[in-house]
Amino acid sequence: MKVVTVEEMGQIEEVCAKIGLPSDILMENAGKAVAEQVRLRLGAIDQQHVLVMVGPGNNGGDGLVAARYLHDWGAKVSVYLLTQRPDNDPNLKLVRVRDIPCMDVTEDENLGKLSELLSSCSAVIDSIFGTGTGQNRHLEGIFQQALGMVSDIQSNRPELHTFALDVPSGFDADSGSADPACLYVDDTITLGFPKLGLFNASGAERAGQITVADIGIPSYLAEQISVELITDDWVASNLPERPFLANKGTFGRVLVVSGSNQYIGAAYLACMGAIRVGAGLVTLATPNRLKPVLATKLTETTYLPLTEAKPGIVSPGAAKQIQQELGNYDVLQIGCGVGQSRPVANFIKNVLLGPKRAQLPLVVDADALNILATIPNWWQKLHDDAILTPHPGEMSRLAGISANEVQSNRTGIARRMAGEWGKTVVLKGAYSVIATPDGECHISPMANPGLASAGTGDVLAGVIAGLRAQGLAAAEAAACGVYLHAEAGEVIRADIGDAGMIASDLLPVLPMVIQELKEGLESSYIEGE
Predict the structure, then answer these.
(1) CB neighbourhood size of 421 (10 A)
(2) Domain boundaries defined on the chain
(3) Measured at the alpha carbon of residue 81, what is the angle toward residues 75 and 82, in degrees to the nearest 5?
């Protein structure tokens, strides 16, 4: 599913008008789709009192259509006009002919009627501005006051359910930045295609749960757009085949370089991540002193004990051991929990950037990324077939910019650095971004605070390496890995919540997620026959 900017959405709508989908038809489709989502989320619609806050332009028109449908389905609906609508507005006329209560702000001294409506309604739909606001328009006056009242009511009545139509008013649909008056809504029902800003760090907080409403725009109109939202169908169709007559070599061999005396668990999590997504063989290369400890828990891996500079710390000379073994593997995953001491840094440099540097597909994470960040022009020496998996702090060090800059433009930064470095980049976090050197980009549809805990990144690195070893291209391995990892987190959150979720919880759930995706794909094939 494509993710669009405001400009791209405008261009798509212009083409729609030329092919027989004028704005009035799209508005009717949009309003109905919004009403359907509101009904789905609230349930028992005939027991709900829904307040629709209407502004100028198309977003307000969409809200009026939604109000009409909700009324016709049995809801108690009130409309509050925050600006004058044209006298000949057909959707306003259809609202009034139904005797839906319609209050004009010009007739509401001190917003007293709005206050009464807010105190009695069960849900509010913000259809004031949508994509019409953002960096170029500051919310002020009556709009600021009205949204402030909603925000106050939210604080006092947490059961009040708030919806944004397309994007919350005051929200920049491209950057995710927001006016201070912009609401923190429970649900954003975005129209046609998801908007880029909804998946940026600040936008994620204000938008709540994001639903994309189909309003009848043909998908082919967005074919040239290079940013995609990852969907379960896409992941299912890209998962590795599992031939009936396979052997372990069929599913790839992963060499995981991980672990140190401080971060023993990272090695376990990375190896098990690769195993749990179906890699045929995983070998752990780890400091020699750690092998007895890890062998008690990692019974399915083989081992390459590495020489040590001191107990539990790999020596620079161990790079020769890695180099001698690389020909036996399909992927090298390196960096999880290896530490950043001088001996380790020299080891990483020798393996990744030295004269005999690794020339097989790479997944580079954690400490290895931080070590690379200290080396000028590191990307010129690193093998191009590499997937880098930084969190925002690691990305800031690699790119030489602040973490705030990274977070303020996650998609843009990931795409720019992937192009400059010539590598596939996975920028982790809420709505993880996967960018490729050729400008393609995938965004995870999920944000889960339960995954913000130690070790989950190690699991993800292993998952991506395991998929890459099974023959997926770098971009597909990265995007599918991010999705499987995030979906496993969603399964766990539904079961136990997000507080107390730990990295190892993800491991047994990964095969279940894969199985469910495959079964869903098979069902869709059967239904399509």
Answers:
(1) 22
(2) 6-224, 232-528
(3) 135
Q: What's the rounded Cα separation, in Å, for the pair 492 and 490?
A: 5
End-to-end alpha-carbon separation of the chain, Å?
23
Structure token digits, residue 117: 């409506």
CATH topology of domain 232-528: UDP-N-acetylmuramoyl-L-alanine:D-glutamate ligase (3.40.1190)
> Which residues of the chain are under the pLDDT cut of 70?
132-137, 201-202, 522-529
Within 10 angstroms of residue 241's Cβ, the number of other Cβ atoms is 9
Residue 125 bridge partners (DSSP)? 52, 163
pLDDT tens digits, 348-359: 999 999 999 999
Is-contact 364 385, C-beta < 8 A? no
Q: What is the dihedral of CA 524, 247, 361, 505, to 10 degrees?
A: 60
Angle of CA points 349, 353, 358, to nearest 5°: 105
Output phi, psi for 69, to 5 deg.
-65, -45
Give one DSSP letter per residue of 90-105, joined into a string. Answer: HHHHHHHHTT--EEEG
CATH for the 6-224 domain, from 1.10.8.60, 3.40.50.300, 3.40.50.10260, 2.40.50.90: 3.40.50.10260
What is the reported pTM? 0.93
Which residues are bridge partners to 386 per DSSP? 362
Give me 501's structure tokens.
């979720």
- For residue 82, the model assigns a pLDDT of 96
